[in-house]
Amino acid sequence: MAAGAAAGIDFGKDLAEKQLLEKLAPKIAGRIAAKIGQESAEKWVGRLIPLAGSAIGGALNYAFVRGWGRRVQRHLRARHLEGRILTLPPTTATA
Fold it and tell me: What are phi and psi of 10, to 5 degrees?
């Protein structure tokens, strides 16, 4: 170091740059990575929310339509049976 200093090499500057790179670079890289990860996560959440909403809406729609369909089937079946009973010829009871 003494010979380098005598030759005019600035070890302080090199040492400071080395320490900055060793200490600050990982911190900066970590913050940038966290920011990129956060932005990426926000983007994907923004894409997933409409998908989740449509899935929930589809499930609710299916449940309501299935319930109403069953109710209509029961009603129409009851009307059909009532119509058959009214149109049957009277039976003669033999005692």
Answer: -90, 95
4-62 pLDDT, tens digit per residue, is: 555 555 555 555 566 656 676 677 777 777 777 877 777 777 777 788 888 888 989 99
Got the DSSP string for the chain?
-HHHHHTT--HHHHHHHHHHHHHHHHHHHHHHHHHHHHHHHHHHHHHHHHHHHHHHHHHHHHHHHHHHHHHHHHHHHHHHHHHHHHHSPPPPP--
CA separation for the pair 9, 3 (Å, rounded): 9
Amino acid residing at 93: A
What pLDDT, on a 0 to 100 scale, did the predictor assign at position 87?
79
Q: How far, CA to CA in Å, does 4 sit from each of 12, 14, 18, 66?
A: 11, 12, 17, 86
